[in-house]
Specification:
477 residues, alpha+beta, five-stranded antiparallel beta sheet, four-stranded mixed beta sheet, 17 helices, 19 strands, binds flavin-adenine dinucleotide
């Protein structure tokens, strides 16, 4: 059988299973499923499959296996490494999880909730809040991304410092395996040492080992008091000193510590509506930090004031603005959350999602910034992000006036330059966005050969026909 006839036979069975209404063919409006947020990837597909139950997902996988046709799982399509977009050859079916969007249970007294994969992160946060609890995963894409995608990418975001990344927030999973078997691992146990922790295999696997259809998530006490400060510092060294002081004095109350360069603030002020500069004078670097607590007697306000006044006296911070209201704090965060978006308005941007040990952030920046400038005079680095986790989005915007295509043609060379510096600090070339297609070949270069071999063995044993997200994370053909 040719690949075209296998595709056609599978398509007919998919339509018979799901009904024509929930299968989008090329003549239907497939656009939102085929184009990635940054427009770096555009694909084609014979059909977008939109099941609304775990059983239907299992049947789809069985059909795909029988006909050996590839499936690309997709949640909110906000992934930044091309994993969820079908390839250009038009052979991969898109398996959208969006219609599995029920909140099955909120167990406030057990501090957990059970949700299906297609619930948006924002809806998960809202359901937790309605039960007077917190689900702490927080990303700028939270209105669109879905919990299945968050878990499959092991998403990070601004809450990692206090609560860990997505994989730390999961108690149990329901997964459809590449064989079509349904694994019901929806347990609520906080402790369970009965052999391998299988759920961890699927968290961060980017849909290459199974389809996450539901999850039991951990909930936390809702914060009663929160304080945000926008702090100007002269250097990344001073930002690190502030981080260590805040960590020492606030302990687990320190829930976010984000670094931003002046150029990022300028971009945000230029391209976001309703923004204002939190601090009148211009400084080279800024920190946005949050303290929060669920303890009624604690005073994060007094604490943050004491931390900042101590650092001001020591000359380690230049100035600071404290949020005077919830709206004021939201304004600070709007600047930070807008940083990815605003770079789109400044022409081409070459991305690096890197991590180094937290204490190495200043040394890394002191080496990488001049190296980029020497490589391409006029290039505008915008390194920002989760400094408290050692994770920066070391993005580089094109020189003003340069041709965008010519700039983007430098993507691989710029990546190599920056990643070599990252690796010299024992860092990672993908801190939170994953590997997908964007970094697959790079992964093969930098990963320890035995680790890579173990990953291939896992893939081959779970998905011998390579029908689930082939070519993502690992080169399998
Ligand atoms: P998708 O993009 O649809 O898919 C992502 C990957 O998971 C793909 O490989 C896909 O095949 C697979 N997948 C999706 N659903 C399932 C499933 N149910 N089962 C198995 N595999 C599945 N990421 C961060 O970590 N931190 C940030 O701070 C952050 N900020 C962002 C800001 C913006 C403005 C944008 C656009 C993106 C940002 N991201 C961030 C990246 C992105 O939002 C995350 O990777 C998110 O977790 C992806 O979720 P999604 O539902 O959109 O998944």
């Amino acid at each position: 059988m040719t690949s075209a006839s296998r595709t056609q036979a599978a398509l007919e069975e998919f339509i018979a299973l799901l009904g024509r209404d929930t299968v989008l063919l090329p003549d239907d409006d497939q656009h939102a499923y085929l184009v990635e947020w940054r427009n770096l990837y555009r694909g084609r597909t014979p059909a977008v499959l939109r099941p609304d139950s775990t059983e239907a997902v299992a049947r789809i996988i069985q059909i795909a296996n029988n006909h050996k046709v590839p499936l690309v799982p997709q949640g909110g399509n906000t992934g930044l490494v091309g994993g969820q977009v079908p390839s250009e050859d038009g052979q991969e079916f898109v398996l959208s999880l969006s219609r599995l969007n029920r909140i099955r249970e909120v167990d406030a007294s057990g501090n957990s909730m059970t949700v299906e994969a297609g619930v948006t992160l924002e809806a998960v946060q809202q359901a937790a809040e309605n039960a007077d609890r917190l689900f702490p995963l927080s990303l700028a894409s939270q209105g669109t991304c879905q919990i299945g995608g968050n878990l499959s990418t092991n998403a990070g975001g601004t809450g990692v410092l206090a609560y860990g990344s997505a994989r730390d927030l999961v108690l149990g999973l329901e997964v459809v395996l590449p064989t079509g078997e349904i694994w019901n691992g929806l347990r609520k146990l906080r402790k369970d040492n009965t052999g391998y922790d299988l759920k961890q295999l699927f968290l961060g696997a980017e849909g290459t080992l199974g389809i996450i259809t539901a999850a039991v998530l951990k909930l936390f006490p809702a914060p009663l008091k929160e304080e945000a400060a926008f702090v100007a510092v002269h250097s990344p060294e001073d930002a690190l000193a502030l981080f260590n002081t805040a960590r020492a004095q606030a302990g687990t109350m320190l829930t976010a510590f984000e670094l931003m360069p002046r150029i990022g603030v300028d971009f945000a002020l230029r391209h976001l509506s309703d923004t204002r500069d939190p601090i009148e004078r211009r400084y080279p670097w800024y920190v946005l930090m949050n303290l929060s607590t669920s303890q009624p007697d604690a005073s994060p306000r007094r604490l943050i004031e004491s931390i900042l006044s101590g650092r001001l006296e020591a000359g380690q911070i230049a100035d600071a603005a404290l949020a005077e209201s919830l709206q004021h704090s939201q304004e600070f965060w709007a600047l930070r959350h807008g940083l990815s978006e605003v770079q789109k308005h400044e022409g081409g941007s070459i991305k690096h999602d890197i991590s180094v040990p937290v204490a190495s952030i200043p040394a890394f920046l002191n080496e990488a910034l001049p190296a980029v400038e020497a490589f391409l005079p006029g290039a505008r680095p915008v390194p920002f992000g989760h400094m408290g986790d050692g994770n920066l989005h070391f993005n580089v915007s094109q020189p003003v006036g340069m041709d965008k295509a010519a700039f983007l043609a430098l993507w691989d060379d710029m990546n190599r330059l920056v990643h070599d510096i990252v690796l010299s600090y024992d860092g990672s070339i993908s801190a939170e966005h994953g590997i997908g297609r964007l970094k697959r070949d790079l992964l093969a270069e930098v990963k320890d050969p035995l680790e890579l071999a173990m990953m291939h063995r896992l893939k081959d044993s779970f998905d011998p026909n390579h029908i689930l997200n082939p070519g993502r994370v690992l080169k399998t053909d």
